[in-house]
Amino acid sequence: MSGEARLMWDEGVTRYDFGPGHPMDPLRLDLTMRLVEAFGLDRHIEVVAAEPAGEAALGLVHQADYLAAVRRASVEPRDADERMGLGTPDTPAFPGMHEASALIAGQSLAGAEDIWRGDVRHAVNFSGGLHHAMPSAASGFCVYNDAAIAIARLLELGAERVAYVDLDVHHGDGVQTAFWDDPRVLTVSLHEHPRFLFPGTGRPEESGGPAAPGSAVNVALPAGTSDAGWLRALHAVVPELLTEFRPQVLVTQHGADTHFEDPLAHLTLSLDAQRAAAEACHQWAHEHADGRWLALGGGGYAIIDVVPRIWTHVVAIAAHRPIEPATQTPEEWRSAVYARTRESGPQRMTDGRRPSWRGWEAGYDPADEVDRAVLATRRAVFPARGLLPEH
């Protein structure tokens, strides 16, 4: 390995902009990078700008007619094809949409390639994690599925086992779809139950195609799930699966929309629980994938108080320079936040919680909704992987 960690960043990713009033405000990306710099993390992690993903790379996941439709809408947004999810309220067309989307995908793609070549152990692209985009349609604010493209490229380069763990509040449906029948990819999504939330998929019985039973794993959690239950569910499912699957690369998606301040969903996690999950992913990469870890962003719509802090924690963890939760946010960053938004930025890198959880070995509680959700997932998937569902 020539380096430990790389942050994939190009200012051009902030041109992924659906316009005023849209929840996916690119300011969240800019404020995150400014916080990374304010903490001096850019001195401890190599910051690299990659080229946009080309047609061949995008075509690893997306169909040619869809790519052509995105290009057309990118030139003339009024020509967007709503049948392909373009020009909708969720995913409005905008000038330069193809270029901005391809640039985001290019960061994830290059990070994956760098990891596979052994140039670095870890790579972070917090502008990525656009996990809803389908092979032939945009969906849920996502135009190109950078996570799926990065995984497909790893397979093309010779990877035999890639694990994907999605921590967004919404189901990682696009990545699941891309590898539904491919036993080389294990997709795990921990999300709010689909009866409450977009995209309406991600039930435990969605567990992989005929050629890949048990390769899709869905933990559908009840609305209101908070730190202890969410972390219990994560640790009750992921470590055993990674031990059995033996991934060569771990790809994780760190959507920040599980937070209690997020306006678009109904889980109630703290920043501290999100940080604990990022630390666990880092540990799992070292334990199960020789340290090969690609960490992506995702959703997150509390763009001042939450998103910059959690993704800065992810960058710091990848750089092996973790930030103590009680650390004060730099005054220069808070000043920049106020200058841009006329709002005060958060004072510390914590919500003041110390999350803890009961391990699954402590026993199953049939009266607990989270435990019932976990057991449903284990029963749907674990036997197909030769694991015991209730132990």
TrEMBL record:
Q: Which organism is it from?
A: Streptomyces millisiae
Q: Which InterPro entries match?
A: AcuC, HDACs, His_deacetylse_dom, His_deacetylse_dom_sf, Ureohydrolase_dom_sf
| Pfam families named in the record | Hist_deacetyl
- Family, per entry: Belongs to the histone deacetylase family.
Q: Where is the signal peptide?
A: none
Q: In which pathway does it act?
A: Ketone degradation; acetoin degradation
Q: Can you name this protein?
A: Acetoin utilization protein AcuC
Keyword Transit peptide in the entry? The reply is: no
Domain Histone deacetylase intervals: 22-316
Q: Which UniProt keywords apply?
A: Acetoin catabolism
